[in-house]
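Exercise 7. Predict the structure of Diphosphomevalonate decarboxylase from Hyalella azteca.
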Amino acid sequence: KYFIVTATAPVNIAVIKYWGKRDEVLILPLNDSVSFTLSQDQLCATTTACISPAFTNDAFWLNGKEESLENPRIQNCLKEIRRRAKESCSSCGSEDDITSWPVHICSANNFPTAAGLASSAAGYAAMVVAVAEVYGVSGGDLSVAARQGSGSACRSVLGGIVRWYKGEQLDGSDSVARQVAPPDHFGELHAILCVASGRRKKTGSTEGMRRCVKTSLVMNMRLTSTVDARTKNIVKAIAEKDWSSFCDLTMSDSQEMHAACLTASPPVVYMTDTSHAVVELVHEYNRVVVKEGQPQLKICYTFDAGPNACLFVPAAAVGQVMSLLLKVFPPSDHCTLDTYLRGLPCPT
Ligand code: DP6
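Solution. The predicted structure, encoded as tokens:
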């Protein structure tokens, strides 16, 4: 006897960053964040979950390699889903109580892990959806379970533009993700990922956040006065379909997060010279399109905990932006996204 379910979840990219935790165990943030969930077809994680009374224990494989299940994040996700399964369980108490069957989980990304491309977000989101379904959990808010795997994962269970509320409750019950707008809200948008390095990041997000909260004055300013106001403004820009302000607010928030990192002690450095060159190019491009009276063609960058830029680009600007990028960063100089995604070695 067994039940098996496969689910996929896409990557999401934050435009207002989640940076800083108020609870490291439950993974509760110090501020609300806002993100774009990319479409499923390119960067996504796929998870298959299988439960059977024949299994002797839970097991987990990531990209073909068996991983320890001692990881408390996976444990917390499983605990939360099993708790929900028990609440709505029709077989509980009987011989066929599926909530007591062990689960085997197989997860794979179609892009490299830990290179600052939010792979853990897609991974935990896909895992939570697959495991919940295989245990018969229907309805309910899966963002709470995904959040316990990785904070940013709670935004990947929803599509389009998503807001993750920090919540006030100590148990995190109100720290949930909600869709703010559908995927096509700003018309056809493309995300261009500029991979400056495919290497694993030096300082993980948890440590980076912790250090900023403890030591950075810019982080203190962010949390006490700027990020909440910026979140309010970006939600307003979204409601008014004000693409130009959306772009400006996205870039400011990325710059502020990285300024907080640089002013931590010791400094947390994610962006490289290549990242800064992308920033310069985007501002220069925006200056020209605005001067030409075409603010709808503006683009924006955002950087997570790594050197790779994610650019949000309106469909009508993709051709021009790609040719600019290729002129400034010829493919022979660095790893192309295609090389990177196929896992081939990047030139150094
Ligand atoms: C810079 O979600 O990876 O991408 O909750 O510790 O797993 P944990 O952190 P994680 O942090 C993401 C940080 C970020 C910003 C964001 O996605 O909002």
